[in-house]
Design brief:
single chain, Aspartate Aminotransferase, domain 1, 2 domains, Aspartate Aminotransferase, domain 2, 15 helices, seven-stranded mixed beta sheet
């Protein structure tokens, strides 16, 4: 079949996610290696967002591929009620790299499922029902995780699809504060408001956050935020759940984003980079205190593919590769360089309102006006299928051989952690040239 035929068959018989189906023409990819992937016509693209912010080790890491092959020959499947070598080995590795004290694990096949497990564990452990999430968050696409998500992807499920007991707090966004405050004079009002919510709500089991918000804009909290939230949760006996599906595994320059502020959550969920995305694996990690509760209480959760051997083996290899290549330090060094390059775009282009990031996790936000911070498009535009300016800019970058993820009003720049300075220069150059599309519409 031709590349065009493969694209057409894909669009005809399968759903394109989070989009109108009419007009979908998915690019046919045939190969990928390092920081690049190749389409069916032989054109190569720099993967400036690690696909879905997940291919942290880059494409075709030999050690991870070998681990998959060897595990397939040794033991391709075992039901989760059995012990396996690979399950024990990965568990020992996780204890080394996770925040200290998180040492009981439930393995899933996605970040969505990891969050579902976290919700159920929190409710079973506390005997309470409400979960406080935040606006501008994404926690997954299943019924529970989408109910805790506050972006347009949740809207289609309402009102019947929203599970009871999820309430939303203000997000952290020092560029465009939802409370119309300014840091540091604000006194971190966004986190203090969460205490106000807990005091005025009954039955709160947990507070759920992305320590560094992912798709919704790489929102980084002030240094006081997470330590203060930890204090609030402890004061009221509320669990703190950290969704590190996107921000974990070296993305922020630490094993996990919470490590940047020395905070240990009660439950941590993750996925994506845990296997550098070659095989679907998610993880829900809890404290020993939570684990001990279930010694004498029924653990009412499970599924067929929990702790699937083929998903665990590549995680072992990926963690060892991260150590061997010292990718946490590399993410800090390369991230600093990337940040300088992106910051220069802000001063050059009137359409760039903000540049923010940590490690190799950056957002470039487009605005009509740098002073008013008015965006070109809205959440409603996304759901209505209206053309988005960020998508036009991203399309121009694709023409230049650079792929970047766009979402409503910003780009998520999160390349593989192995990226070189030369490759960073290539990606930033393409964005620099493509931003002229947005500049003509800026005021």
């Amino acid at each position: 079949m031709t590349s065009q035929e493969i694209s057409e068959l894909t669009a005809r018989y399968t759903y394109g996610t989070w989009r109108y189906q009419k007009g979908w023409k998915p690019l046919h990819i045939v190969d990928a290696e390092g920081c690049y992937f190749t389409d069916g016509n032989g054109k190569r693209y720099l993967d400036f967002s690690s696909q879905l912010m997940c291919v942290n080790l880059g494409h075709k890491n030999a050690a991870v591929i070998k681990a998959i092959e060897e595990q397939a020959r040794k033991l391709p499947f075992a039901a989760p009620g059995f012990a396996t070598d690979v399950r024990a080995e990965l568990s020992q590795l996780l204890v080394e790299v996770l925040p200290k004290g998180l040492d009981k694990f439930f393995f899933t096949t996605s970040g969505t499922e990891a969050n579902e497990a976290a919700f159920k564990i929190a409710k079973m452990y506390t005997g309470k029902n409400k979960i406080i999430a935040r606006y501008r968050s994404y926690h997954g696409s299943t019924m529970g995780s989408i109910a805790a998500t506050s972006d347009p992807r949740r809207w289609a499920m309402e009102p019947g699809g929203k599970i009871p007991g999820v309430i939303f707090a203000p997000e952290v966004n020092c560029y465009k504060c939802p409370l119309m405050h300014h840091y540091p004079e604000c006194g971190i009002a966004c986190v203090e408001y969460i205490e106000h919510m807990i005091e005025n709500e009954s039955d709160v089991a947990a507070v759920l956050i992305e320590p560094v918000v992912g798709t919704n804009g790489v929102l980084i909290p002030p240094k006081e935020y997470l330590p203060r939230l930890r204090q609030i949760c402890d004061k009221y006996g509320v669990l703190l759940i950290a969704d590190e599906v996107m921000s974990g595994w070296g993305r922020t320059g630490q094993w996990f984003a919470v490590d940047n502020w020395g905070v240990v959550p009660d439950i941590l969920t993750t996925a994506k980079g845990i296997t550098t995305a070659y095989v679907p694996l998610g993880l829900c990690a809890t404290s020993r205190k939570i684990a001990e509760y279930f010694d004498d209480h029924y653990f009412s959760h499970g599924h067929t593919y929990e702790a699937h051997p083929l998903t665990l083996a590549p995680a072992i290899a990926a963690i060892n590769e991260m150590k061997r290549l010292d990718l946490n330090q590399r993410a800090r060094d390369a991230g600093s360089y990337l940040g300088e390059k992106l910051e220069a775009l802000k001063h050059k282009h009137p359409s760039v309102g903000d540049v923010r990031g940590i490690g190799l996790f950056w957002a470039v936000e487009l605005v009509k006006n740098q002073k008013t911070k008015e965006a070109f498009n809205t959440k409603a535009d996304k759901v209505a299928g209206k053309p988005l300016l960020v998508d036009k800019v991203a399309a121009e970058m694709m023409k230049k051989g650079v792929f970047v993820q766009s979402w409503i009003s910003h780009f998520v720049v999160a390349p593989p952690l192995i990226i070189t300075r030369e490759e960073i220069d290539e990606g930033v150059k393409a964005m620099d040239e493509a931003l002229s599309t947005a500049d003509v519409s800026a005021k």
